[in-house]
Design brief:
The protein is an alpha/beta fold. The chain contains 15 helices and 19 strands. The chain has 3 domains: 243 residues, FAD/NAD(P)-binding domain (3-Layer(bba) Sandwich), CATH 3.50.50.60; 100 residues, Alpha-Beta Complex (Flavocytochrome C3, Chain A, domain 1), CATH 3.90.700.10; 106 residues, Up-down Bundle (Methane Monooxygenase Hydroxylase, Chain G, domain 1). The termini are far apart. 56% of the residues are buried.
Length: 517
């Protein structure tokens, strides 16, 4: 069925139906807005799968200053302190806002928040809903609110393929609904497409999340930052299912420990033990497995018999695999979970392209630095959505026709990219492996086939990883294991990434610092 686009002209367009996109649309009300979701709402949103919850200083013994300190420590020198302070200060209000929208957060009988502890947090500050179903409950409430909101026009099954940009300013969105091309005339666009886990073979993300928003932004000329920092969750369920089911960090917060097949607790002598920062735990699990061991999460003693009540979703898929967490260790392995890098944005979510904003995992706000603190991601999406909406509402639409693309880009298929990135950009990396991936990705990224956009995002991540000749946070170079004294964020555009990639393809040891700053 054809779509009458005339009434949508000039409206802000939000690309993505996860928590960031939905909250931005709700904050814009009553201003009319168009929300594009390539699948039914929630079907391919990482927010739906989030187990851990939201980090917010709402406990009696907590304070946003403590939350900020933990965030900066985890970020390994690359957090934007001003941005991080602004975001964590607003986190308690964001939890209240979600509660008002109908999210049924877990509380004690007296009404106090039931708070959990996760890695690298100095206080219990993780707000949950239905135990390990936080993301599902938040998305349920947000989807219901959006469907009730008369100012939101929801176009499900519509996939954005390109942004039309003239003189570094957005003029429209080119999209597809089935086989029907759609051009939305707008000068205000929000990218809220989630992460990049679908670019890897082993990920906890929906397979449909493979960096489409980053490709849109890069091809529009936007600056992307900190792309090399890909967080691996250390405890994904080690089984045949893809994506890999996640075992939330909260289980370790409840006292579960990591063991190998001999029963050895190999994290016991590490600072923080099982609740060390995620990059530390992921590397320990990765190395143990590389030594020929299997790794298990042992929850038999803590939380023990309470496991099923506290973690009903995890308990259900464990039982489907023939495992009872109260009596059996759970096999685990690291898997790609979260991307700290993304579209570089200011405090209002604005990118370097006029009329283009980004929110949620697709953005790089400076909150996470080199390593995301657990449960800061959902919180960031909810908090920043309000500022993005306020910025859009204060920006007038510029009249004019969007123009046309010469040809409609192909639908994307990341299957050719997944083995390349999985081999080269795992928990442990080195220059030769990254360079080999770049050589293979470059012709795909410069082509016009289904691999082009996924390969472009993978190429930009690889170029950034090759340029960072140190180990910092989630980026660990086995050939450069030390951390430099001065931390420098990295930034790339499409043109600088292609230039750098060509140099790498032509030389074994290229100098690319001139194009990566």
């Amino acid at each position: 069925m054809s779509i009458d686009l005339s009434e949508f002209a000039g409206r802000p367009v939000i690309i993505g139906g996860g928590a960031a996109g939905l909250m931005t649309a709700l904050h814009l009300a009553p201003q009319p807005v168009v929300l594009l979701s390539k699948s039914p709402l929630g079907a391919e949103a990482s927010s739906m799968w989030a187990q851990g919850g939201l980090a917010a200083a709402v406990g009696d013994d907590d304070d946003p200053a403590l939350h900020l300190a933990d965030t900066i420590a985890a970020g390994a020198g690359l957090c934007d302190e001003a941005a991080a302070r602004r975001i964590v200060d607003e986190a308690p209000a964001a939890v209240e806002r979600l509660s008002q929208l109908g999210v049924a957060f877990d509380r004690h009988a007296d009404g106090r928040w039931r708070l959990g502890l996760e890695a690298a947090h100095s206080r219990k500050r993780i707000v949950h809903a239905t135990g390990d179903g936080t993301g599902r409950e938040i998305m349920r409430a947000l989807i219901a609110a959006v469907r009730r909101c008369p100012s939101v026009t929801l176009l499900e099954g519509v996939e954005a393929r390109r942004l039309i940009v003239t003189d570094n300013a957005v003029r429209g969105v080119v999209a597809v609904r089935g086989e029907e091309p759609i051009v939305l005339a707008t000068t205000r666009v929000v990218i809220a497409t989630g992460g990049i886990g679908g670019l890897f073979l082993d990920s906890t993300n929906p397979s449909g999340c493979f960096g489409q928003g980053l490709a849109l932004a890069a091809r529009a000329g936007a600056v992307l930052s900190d792309l090399e920092f890909v967080q691996f969750h250390p405890t994904a369920f080690d089984g045949p299912s893809r994506p890999l089911p996640l075992l939330t960090e909260a289980i370790r917060g409840d006292g579960a420990v990591l063991i190998d097949e001999t029963g050895t607790r190999f994290m016991a002598d590490e600072p923080g033990a099982e609740l060390a920062p995620r990059d530390v735990v992921a590397r320990a699990v990765w190395r143990r497995r590389a030594q020929g061991h299997r790794v298990f999460l042992d929850a038999r003693t803590k939380p023990g018999k309470a496991f099923a009540a506290r973690y009903p979703v995890i308990s259900a898929f464990c039982r489907m695999a023939g495992i009872d967490p109260a009596t059996d260790p759970i096999p685990v392995r690291p898997a790609v979970h979260y991307h700290m890098g993304g579209v570089a944005v200011d405090h209002d979510g604005r990118s370097s392209v006029d009329g283009l904003w980004a929110c949620g995992e697709a953005s790089r706000t400076g909150l996470h630095g080199a390593n995301r603190l657990a449960s800061n991601s959902l919180m960031e999406a909810i908090v920043c959505a309000q500022w993005v909406a306020e910025s859009i509402a204060g920006t007038a639409h510029r009249a004019g026709q969007p123009g046309e693309l010469a040809a409609m880009p192909s639908a994307s298929d990341p299957s050719a990219v997944r083995p390349l990135l999985s081999d080269a950009l795992g928990v442990l990396r080195d220059a030769s492996g990254i360079a080999a991936a770049i050589q293979d990705l470059l012709p795909l990224a410069e082509g016009a086939g289904a691999s082009a956009d996924p390969a472009l995002v993978g190429l930009m991540i690889s170029v950034a990883a090759h340029a960072r000749e140190e180990s910092r946070g989630a980026h660990f170079r086995s050939d450069n294991p030390d951390t430099l004294v001065v931390a420098q964020p990295s930034s790339l555009t499409l043109s600088s990434a292609i230039t750098a990639a060509r140099e790498i393809a032509e030389s074994e040891r290229p100098s690319i610092r001139s194009v990566v700053s």
